[in-house]
Amino acid sequence: MRYAYYPGCSSHTSGKEYDRSFRLIAKALDIELVEVPDWTCCGSHVTYVFNPALAASLSARNLALVEKMGEGIEVVTGCSGCYQTLKRSNDLLKHDANIQAKVKEALEAVNLSYNANLKIHHALEALTTQEALDTISKKITKPLKGLKVAPYYGCAVVRPKFEDSFDDPENPQSIDRLMKVLGAEPVPYIDKTRCCGGVLIMKHERVGLEMIRRLLANAKQAGAECIVTPCALCHLNLDIMQPKVEQAFKQRFNMPIFFFTQLIGLALGLKPTELGLDKHMVSSVSLLQSKGVGV
Amino acid sequence: MSLITRKITPDMMDPNFESTIRKRLGEKGEKVPLCFQCGVCSGSCPVAFAMDYTPRQIMELIKLGAKDLVLNSSTIWLCAACYSCSVRCPQGVDLKQVMETLKEIALEDPKYSRAEKAFYEKFIEVVRKNGRMDEVALYVKLMPKSAVMRNLGFGLKLYQRGKIKLSPAKSSNDQVAKISEKVLAKEVHQQ
Questions:
Q1: Domain region containing B38
Q2: Which CATH architecture has domain A2-123?
Q3: Is the domain of B56 the same as that of B135?
Q4: Whole-model pTM over 0.80
Q5: CA–CA separation, A194 vs A215, rounded Å?
Q6: Interface ipTM > 0.90
Q7: Is it true that the peptide bond before B46 is cis, omega within 30 degrees of 0?
Q8: Residue B88 maps to which CATH number?
Q9: pLDDT tens-digit profile of B97-150?
Q10: What is the pLDDT of residues A209-223, one digit of tens each?
Q11: B161 to chain A: which residues are within 8 Å by CB?
């Protein structure tokens, strides 16, 4: 399988280890990721508030570059925000004549054009097709036996519902299925699609902290020893902000947060440092040691 | 609702408010009048606990034409755009899209949202300048100096983990700036 890989801006900052672990396991699973040359910001839902035509144009620039990469190529991104934005723009460019006209003109200014025929996938989708799960299952050398995981999907990977969405917006199952294949135990998690607050943490810190606290508390209550996520912004909130949450609410969680790509990597026998586990705010060393994983 | 209606005076009203929103939403706007106040949106909203008006109340205020209350509410800015309400609404109202439209209207009118505007403007500024988003560049632009100083220790931990960079992420071309100029110039021209 060959994909045009759109890493998204967070792949250089808060989601660095997500990008790194995705590339590593893709290689191990014979999935070819060709980075979109010279990609730029997808626009994100923030630009959509400011100016929808601009947001759609920023997405379209990247999709136009993908189209040039060859017939039949499909896009994959690990960033849930980029996934949602690129899909939204793609849909608008198929159905909204007003946006189409504005975007066409904007792209002409940089000598590009886009036909809106691309398929856009999330990394979670690409790695949980039956075929991918079978390949993973065959290559597992270190099953994550006994690891109790809260499968946290967040919003953007399952909502809104697109014509070709790959999982259910209310009770998604792809991470749950993947965890079972890896040998881990997904716990029933009531907040699996409840929003972490996203960028609210920047604008309304106290509100954001409370939203994160609830997710951590319910995961703990469900018996989870860690949380797994397919979203860099969710990871930022749950991991990077966790010490702030603990301080603000005087509650200790000590809950390691993994990208799903890192857990696949561990099961494939890759080293924790290769997968960037040492980049997390909340250490997973003792948890993994107690399960005999990553050692 | 009685609490809300008592706060409304005629000068805060705009009888065309609902139709303005419907028009901006295009096809999706047709669903707005179908809201029957069931409250599934408010029950589903993960930020409702912090809002001054719940999403259900906002829908009713729109119907009433209570423009000022809606556009001055904390609700529209606290909406995290998670689409929980949109996927659950039994009447098919895309409430997340309604909230986005309300933000859009508020951002255009200097009467509203002065405190919130900065986030959106700075976000676009960073993207236009660098072609890519950089959370730290944005954070520093948004924060008062004192808050940046208070968070230095925290920033250092992130730096040590490679999560933030001192020089902002940049694309090697200026196409984003060119595209932005083209789209935004056109908008001004049309007005």
A1: 2-108
A2: Up-down Bundle (1.20)
A3: no
A4: yes
A5: 8
A6: yes
A7: no
A8: 1.10.1060
A9: 999 999 999 999 989 977 788 889 899 999 999 999 987 778 777 877 788 788
A10: 999 999 999 999 999
A11: 278-281
